[in-house]
Design goal:
With 647 residues, the chain is an alpha/beta fold. Among the domains are: 438-516, Roll (Luciferase, domain 3), CATH 2.30.38; 522-644, GMP Synthetase, Chain A, domain 3, CATH 3.30.300. The protein has 19 helices and 30 strands. A hairpin with a 3-residue loop joins strand 28 (543-553) and strand 29 (557-566). Bound molecules: 5'-O-[(S)-butoxy(hydroxy)phosphoryl]adenosine. The site of 5'-O-[(S)-butoxy(hydroxy)phosphoryl]adenosine has 23 residues, from helix 10, strand 20, strand 24 and strand 25.
Length: 647
């Protein structure tokens, strides 16, 4: 087997890129013809960004799981689809072939149907990183139900908000999950969440930790019992639901600069084709390779590059339940050695954290199977890049720095491993079909090496990163609120998709993403809105007002710094900080806990009452000498106090 649309040389990349821009419909139409369709599409693309209205492959009918499972179960039944490594080094790994995975997914389809699930229903998944999570995701897709996976670190309140927003009727969870030395009581958190969720009729619970859980009659059932019932009933095969190209496939919630997280909606055909195309080209996957993406399936990276991209390509995807530092900081390297991993796709925050443990844990490991390394989630600093290149890739593995977002479905800007040049800290060039454009604050394009690579500027330029033409993986809407989708992504600059990222472009046309230009933080590669954290902090009884900003953090990339006006009975700052952290954990989850909390008597505000975050950001960064003009503040004296009290 080979991939007909895998780009094999730099010249070919330039040629394909040019064609993809000159005639995007011909380009994507040709790629789409390599997939299994129940009915061919009539129209490749219909779009306008002002609505926004985006439809790819209209008229086409398909089921993504026939492309991810059935076709490979037929042609390569014994190829491992999923290899799973436990959190526990003593628990045997599992290897599930395409043939076996198809059976397991079919069985679980029956379970879903027996519990009343049908096409279009929303199903919430709150599960540990075990193969059953992938099986549940695929079973939802096979029966046409819309999955909404919620990361296992989110609180009951966050789950309830997501379940209610999507009006989920079914929840799939586990008794608990392992993460390093910790046990996470997943079912108990779900029980707390469901107190607020009237739409949920059934909860299916997988056994993982054997933690005692409460099981409510009529609502809760065990995964294993349900599977037994199906097995006893005989033939497990389930005819995949025939889906329209633009039927929703899943919802995934992500944070923005305002309000509660939005449910980003991806649809069946475009998302499938885009994750497949980018997986095959960016990582240069070859049949037989073992692909190890270290993300959690609770984030978009897991959806696209653990499940759908690899499986739609008939690849072997390695899924790891644990964390990189448990039982020691050599765990990733053990796994690479044990399974002879060929592609390692991870995050800068993990690399920086592992760097701090030194290279002794690497020396005893055989990493010679590695061919390609990948980075995602935040800008990778040069030091981490070089360490990764030298100590893990031994100087011979290309590193792909992949820039993308939950909303983009798949990678938009990246080098192609070993094919197009890498440049440390640069995501480099756009993938075929992707048309980046830098604009200034007024939306005026900064012309040069976008789209054509012909008319290049002679210098590096900088601006806000936009995309000017749809690609198949672009989000279609935000669940239940299309206007919010328009306002967030398509209204800042007319006829452009605005990414929220600032960006540089060098004179060769390489893009370097510099970070968010909105009030969104990127903590350990996870997106968190400052407004969301402030709302959580403000729920604490003693808090009068708060302001949250990001600051550079050695491991996490960005840390969370909270300035708080407190008016409670407590007078012990340390205890207050602990209480605030507890509150944030309850409301959002531990990932949103501030790293630093400073109690202040006032916040720097303009005369109209707007908090001057610019000043707080400077103080948090430690750049207290360059605060700029503070004369327009309501109370300039407060700045001195905050500077002095800086943590
Ligand atoms: C934001 C998207 C894409 C999956 C993981 C995060 C930042 C992502 C890179 C990169 C610099 C990056 C951007 C983007 N980001 N990849 N290679 N270089 N920054 O998905 O939670 O939707 O966050 O992550 O700021 O907007 P997400």
């Amino acid at each position: 087997m080979s991939y007909p649309y895998q780009i094999k040389s730099l010249e070919q990349y330039h040629e394909v890129y040019k064609q993809s821009i000159e005639n995007p419909e011909k380009f994507w139409g040709e790629i789409a013809s390599h997939f299994l369709w129940r009915k061919p599409f009539d129209n490749v693309l219909d779009w306008n960004f002002s609505a926004p209205h985006i439809e790819w492959f209209k008229g086409g009918q398909l089921n993504i799981t026939e492309n991810c499972l059935d076709r490979w179960a037929e042609t390569q039944p014994d190829t491992p689809a999923i290899i799973w490594e436990s959190n526990d080094i003593n628990e045997p790994h599992r290897s599930i072939s395409y043939k076996e995975l198809l059976v397991k997914v079919n069985q679980f389809c029956h379970v879903l149907k027996n519990n009343g699930a049908k096409k279009g229903d929303r199903i919430c998944l709150y599960m540990p990183m075990v193969p059953e999570l992938a099986i549940a995701v695929l079973a939802c897709a096979r029966i046409g139900a819309i999955h909404s996976v919620v990361f296992g670190g989110f609180s009951a309140q966050s789950i309830a908000d997501r379940i209610n927003d999507a009006q989920c009727t079914l929840v799939i969870t586990a008794d608990g999950g392992y993460r390093g030395a910790k046990e996470i009581p997943l079912k108990s958190v779900i029980d707390d969440a469901l107190v607020q969720c009237t739409s949920v009729q059934k909860v299916i619970v997988l056994t993982r930790t054997q933690t005692p859980v409460s099981m409510i009659k009529g609502r809760d059932c065990w995964w294993e019992d349900e599977i037994n019932n199906v097995e006893n009933a005989g033939n497990p095969f389930v005819e995949a639901e025939v889906m329209e190209a633009e039927d929703p496939l899943f919802i995934l919630y992500t944070s923005g600069s305002t309000g509660k997280p939005k449910g980003v909606v991806h649809t069946c055909a475009g998302y499938m084709i885009y994750t497949n195309y980018t997986f095959i080209n960016v990582f240069q996957y070859q049949p037989g390779d073992i692909h190890f993406c270290t993300a959690d399936i609770g984030w978009i990276t897991g959806h696209s590059y653990i499940i759908y991209g690899p499986l739609s390509a008939g690849a072997t995807t390695l899924m790891f339940e644990g964390i990189p530092t448990w039982p020691d900081a050599g765990r990733f390297w053990d796994i690479i050695d044990k399974f002879k991993v060929n592609i390692l796709y991870t995050a800068p925050t993990a690399i920086r954290s592992l760097m701090s443990f030194g290279t002794d844990v690497i020396k005893r490991k055989d990493l010679r199977s590695l061919k390609v390394l990948g980075s995602v989630g935040e800008p990778i600093n040069e030091e981490a890049w070089h360490w990764f290149h030298e100590h893990i890739g031994k100087g011979k593995c290309p590193i792909v720095d992949t820039w993308w977002q939950t909303e983009t479905g798949g990678i938009l800007i990246s080098n192609l491993a070993g094919i197009t040049p890498q440049k440390p800290s640069y995501a480099t060039l756009p993938l075929p079909g992707v048309q980046p454009l830098l604009v200034d604050e007024n939306g005026v394009p900064i012309l040069g090496g976008d789209a054509s690579l012909q008319d290049l500027p002679s210098e590096t330029v900088s601006g806000n990163l936009c995309i000017r033409h749809p690609w198949p993986g672009i989000l279609r809407t935000t669940y239940g609120d299309h206007e919010r989708c328009r306002l967030t992504y398509f209204s800042t600059y007319p006829n452009l998709y605005f990414t929220g990222d600032g960006c540089l472009r060098d004179k060769e046309g390489n893009y370097r993403i510099t970070g968010r230009v909105d009030d969104v933080l990127n903590v350990s590669g996870h997106r968190i809105g400052t407004a969301e954290v402030e709302n959580a902090i403000n729920m604490h009884t003693g808090v009068v007002e708060s302001a949250v900003v990001g600051y550079p953090h050695d491991i996490k990339g960005q840390g969370i710094y909270a300035f708080i006006i407190f008016n409670g009975v407590l007078d012990d700052d340390k205890l207050i900080a602990q209480d605030i952290n507890q509150t944030v954990s309850r409301v959002i989850g531990a990932i949103a806990k501030p790293d630093k909390i400073q109690i202040v008597s006032g916040l720097p505000k303009t005369r109209s009452g707007k908090i001057m975050r610019r000043i707080l950001r400077k103080i948090a960064e430690g750049d207290t000498d360059n605060l700029g003009d503070i004369s327009t503040l309501l109370d300039p004296a407060v700045v001195e106090e905050i500077k002095t009290g800086r943590i």
